[in-house]
Amino acid sequence: MTRIRQPHDSFGCNHLRGTAGCGRFGIPRAQLRAMSSRFVSRAAARATCVICALAIWALAASAPAARQAAGGANEFYDSHFHLTNYIQEGITVQQFLQIMGTRVGRSTLFGIPLQQQWSYGNSGDFAPTYYLHSDAPLYYYSFTDAYIAMTYRALPPEQQARFDPMITGFDPADMYGADHIRRVLKTFPGVFTGIGEFSIHKEFVSSKISGETASLTNPALDRILDFAAEAGLVVIIHNDIDMPFAKVDAEPVYLTQMKALLKRHPKTSIIWAHTGLGRVVRPAQVSAEAAERSPNHVAMLAAMLADPSLAHVNFDISWDEVAKYAISSPEIVSRVAALFNQYPDRFLFGTDTVAPSGPAPYYAVFDMWAPVFRQLTPETSLKIRKGNYQRIFDEGRRKVRAWEKSHAT
Hints:
Layout: H1 29-69, E1 76-78, E2 81-82, H2 93-100, E3 104-109, E4 114-116, H3 120-123, E5 138-140, H4 143-153, H5 157-160, E6 163-167, H6 177-187, E7 194-199, H7 219-231, E8 234-238, H8 255-263, E9 270-272, H9 297-305, E10 313-316, H10 320-326, H11 330-342, E11 347-348, E12 353-354, H12 359-368, H13 370-373, H14 378-406
Parallel strand pairs: 1-3, 2-12, 3-6, 6-7, 7-8, 8-9, 9-10, 10-11
Antiparallel strand pairs: 4-5
Helix pairs in contact: 6-7
């Protein structure tokens, strides 16, 4: 009887049954131990990679919250925020609440009263989303007020308490502008705290608006401010202090008219947005020869702040363009900080962000002011970041609710 030899490999191990020095499947035990060790090492490496990937994902997912929390809880209130942009699109209020997190306690809430027209004859298939993207005109978009009101009303009471909605969808050159504001208050009682931001003179914008050009001397604007005083509405007005590319040593062209307007309405709570500055409307340019007779921007603000007939006027320091001017040199930082410390009750911080995509662009504006804030007294810093907002807008809420109650139909 012929015995069939079972196959052996070059190591002398039987493939079907173990032999001395061989492990399972006929593999030498020493080799098997080496193979096992390599398998375990590779598995551990793969597991480590998976864990690292998950950790990176978790960090990325939590980055927005970490960024908003980095500045501390309830760090500031935002006196100037746009939920929507120039084509009436933006983020939801729920998304903004996520951006605010715990770092921002309260904020104004308004859209933009102007819609950029998409003129096919001007830009073809390109759909402009900003006023600088097209030569086509802008027009007033009154539905923005209803949108803001419905957005606010959809929130639970504890979230509503964090917002101060503002009416913006009126034409300040229209004598019926004040009637629109009155109608909005009666249609949406319990919602709005003020009006604005609305613009009179604004670089690159005023000339694009369809219809009559707004003016600081137009009686329509006086009617609006008179009604704001009657109803207790807080007013945020954008008016460039000067024309773009103004001449050195020249008095800002709109300063006299603006001061006259403010003095005509001593019972209206008014916030002058951006302290009158713009993207190219820079602080007054004063030569060394004219420095004694031509005040710079800080000096002009100081003169207004010292004028008792303008005690009802405050200034917001919103917009990254304003921050750029304020931190442009150590000397200017010190000058701005000294002004804030001298008049701590008259300035409010705001971002002037428009539908920010996330925490980074939103908080960048606040973080730019760090060099100035470091030179403020604790009391001044607290008032500019939160206290003045609370005082002004709480009073606005109280007065508007009282007006609505007395005019309920």
